Amino acid sequence: MTDSMRTQLVSAIHLQEVELQEKPAENQQSGQNNNEEKYTVEDAVETIGFGRFHILLFFIMGSTNIVEAMEIMLLAVVSPEIRCEWRLDDWQVALVSTMVFLGFMVCGVLSGYIADRYGRWKVVFGGFVWSAYFSLLTSFAPSYGWFIFLRSMVGCGVSGVSQGFVLKTEFIPAKYRAFLLPLATIFWMTGSMLIIILGMLVVPGLGWRWMIRLSVTPSVILIFLFKFIPESARYQVSAGNVGAAVKTLQRIATMNRTSLPPGRLVEPPVRERGSWRILLSSSFRRTSVLLWYSWFVASFSYYGSVLSSSELLEKNLLCVTNPDPEHQVQHRHQDGLCYCIPFGSSDYQTLLISCLGEVALVPVNIALLNVFGRKISLTVLQLLMAIFFMLVNICTTMFGFTVLLFLLRSLVSMNFNVVYIYTAEVYPTVARSLGMGFCTSFSRIGGMIAPFIAQVLMSQSVILALSPFAVASVVCALGNFLLPIETRGRALLQNS
Fold this sequence. Notes:
Layout: H1 3-34, E1 38-39, H2 41-48, H3 52-86, H4 90-118, H5 120-138, H6 144-161, H7 164-169, H8 174-183, H9 185-206, H10 208-215, H11 217-225, H12 233-238, H13 242-255, E2 264-265, H14 276-279, H15 285-314, H16 325-330, H17 345-360, H18 362-371, H19 373-391, H20 398-426, H21 432-456, H22 462-479
Parallel strand pairs: 1-2
């Protein structure tokens, strides 16, 4: 054996000894990795708990409801003004609301798909900018045609803003959702009252165009405040961006002066995100269909109550069950083209008081959600809505009408709250925004039909105009018994 061969043999023996020494160490390290603690986003959200971040989240994301409410309630305030300026018939006034909801419906599904595919934050921020821009342009509308087109563009932007509810829900621990989410009604009421107060103060002196220009202010402010809200960690994980999710959760934990769970964040990415097939899969098919109708009724009844009250006040139809021709002639222009009675101060006051009804029963709403759950709450509220829609037919004083309207607005607002919460809780993260998008689109169908019932049919018969809202609510209450899933106290699903 030559020296070179002897040297190669010794080297091989040494190499084998090193490999034998290293393999146990590698096996030991592999075992340690297998025993390493892991956590999910749901674990992190529950461990971090409620703190300063959630207070900031509550006020900034809750303020999105101010923007949405102002844009929607603006229709009730501006209707008498544009009717007078452009000499509009009833169906033309109703078409304004319908076009807004058409824009919302068309863009609702699109915004939900984009939010599930590319992130919630981008959609909500884009919605702010879009709705503020086109709302401002509305104030310069030279004609009725331009007005309804620009308002439909506003509706498209508001559909993106409404995805803020999903973004907010995904950061809130399970036991706090039934408390914090109904409290967001305060912001909706604030937006409704702001636009009514603007109408009261600005319209008589400066006109409806300046009212719209001033109403854009909250949107502009929120555009700058929205940078303090991060992207949803649940979305980031579903998109495979675990590092970004950890940074988001660490940021929240630091603000709340707490820490993340021990170990590392482990959740597999999901390829099929934002797919309508999930909504119609065997797990969610019945839930989706029933929810679509529930959203239809929620919007149909809500905007029916808002526009009916506006119409009853504008046309002085209280205690007038079936308006005769003489009553209608008294409230028309001399040329007979349209009604034209701008709101007086007492009418604005009645609308303001009715807005307070949206938060008056929030404690009752919270109690229903925590004690009876989501499904029973929906049934109770919808049956009460049907009763109060029919009670509005009763001939009473202005005080009595205000009380009935106050309670009706409370009930329809609470019903909308519960529908929002249930939808955000029942769908998985991979399709939550799309599910919300589909639901809001169906709700806008109700919003599109409501003006023609509440504003056009009301001129013919008050009872005939209010009955469809009551019947739709009863049918929806019965349908809730078929919902297969109760979400009270349940963790948010990550995938289907």
